[in-house]
Design goal:
Shape: globular
Order of helices and strands: HHEEEHEEEEHHHHHHHHHH
Strand order of the largest sheet: 1-2-3-4-7
Strand content: 15-25%
Number of domains: 3
Number of helices: 13
Number of strands: 7
Helix content: 40-55%
Largest sheet: 5 strands, mixed
Radius of gyration: 20 Å
Length: 294
């Protein structure tokens, strides 16, 4: 699944590099060029590399999009940042784009005896913290497929409808990749039947990336199975968030969470798990949600 997200986001970045840089920096920049990574000794397929000019200041930006917690990421990103700095002899701005909102670190370092050997910081962007409605109105169209992963007050269907309206602003030949990205990224948090209600499969089929994930979207008659898979993904996300926050993977909660059929309840519990300081705090929220549904 991670490979699917990686392929689609790279396709979007290829067409809209300035839009993704604007997402990171919050302002338009003078010039953005994609860089080929084959020039460095170690190839990291998960990274996107830019050369940027911002108010006359030139630098390299590394952008890594993540759908899962990767505890090795800070060390790998440190290594890759150092390699790009050496390769291009320019300052490097490393960025992690957190697609799911699961808690992650934004720095890494270590001491050895009396020395601080490494103190490494990178920009962490949690899409779940960004105001989705503002991006819908004022953001560049290239990042519209990421809007469902942002914070918003609209219903899931309303978010998708408004995203689709923005996509219709671009030339018809560019729309399939945007629709495919919108469907794929929204599947991280929205029910598939809602997605397919708004985004017809025919709108995605013209994308060259669609063939690789055709079976996920083409048969609308398998919605029950797809919904089950989405519930399983959300249960796993809750357990991983609790492990990250409490240091304990509470597998004893798995069956209890899987028994919850309401995706809205699981969505609420995921948000509680991300913020929970202890397992007891989360259990109190879980009991409260069960009390409301009984």
């Amino acid at each position: 699944m991670a490979q699917e997200f990686d392929l689609v986001i790279k396709a979007l970045v290829e067409r809209y590099p300035t839009h993704f840089v604007q997402l990171v920096r919050g302002i338009p920049v003078d010039k953005v060029d994609r860089l080929e990574k084959e020039t460095v000794a170690v190839k990291r397929d998960s990274d996107i590399l830019f050369r940027i000019s911002e108010n006359g200041y030139e630098y390299i930006m590394i952008l890594e999009a993540q759908t899962r917690i990767d505890r090795e990421m800070p060390r790998r990103l440190l290594e890759y940042t150092a390699m790009q700095h050496r390769e291009y002899n320019k300052p490097v701005y490393p960025v992690v784009l957190n697609l799911t909102g699961r808690p992650q670190e934004d720095s890494y370092g270590f001491d050895c005896l009396d020395l601080t050997v490494v103190s490494f910081s990178y920009r962490l962007i949690n899409l779940a913290d960004l105001p989705g409605e503002d991006v819908l109105k004022h953001g560049p169209v290239g990042i519209i497929p990421l809007v469902p992963l942002m914070r918003h007050r609209l219903t899931d269907e309303e978010v998708l409808v408004q995203c689709a309206r923005r996509i219709e602003e671009v030339p018809v030949q560019w729309q399939p990749d945007l629709y495919l990205g919108l469907a794929l990224f929204s599947s991280l948090c929205f029910a598939r039947e809602i997605i397919l209600k708004v985004i017809e499969v025919s709108k995605m089929e013209a994308s060259p990336l669609f063939d690789g994930i055709r079976e996920k979207w083409i048969d609308q008659g398998e919605q029950r199975g797809l919904q089950k898979g989405l519930r399983e993904d959300r249960v796993e996300a809750i357990l991983e968030a609790l492990e990250e926050n409490t240091g304990i993977y509470p597998d004893h909660l798995a069956e209890k969470l899987r028994s919850i059929q309401d995706m809205g309840v699981l969505k609420t519990l995921f948000r509680r798990a991300v913020k929970a300081k202890s397992l007891e705090e989360f259990m109190s929220a879980l009991d409260g949600e069960e009390g409301q549904t009984n």
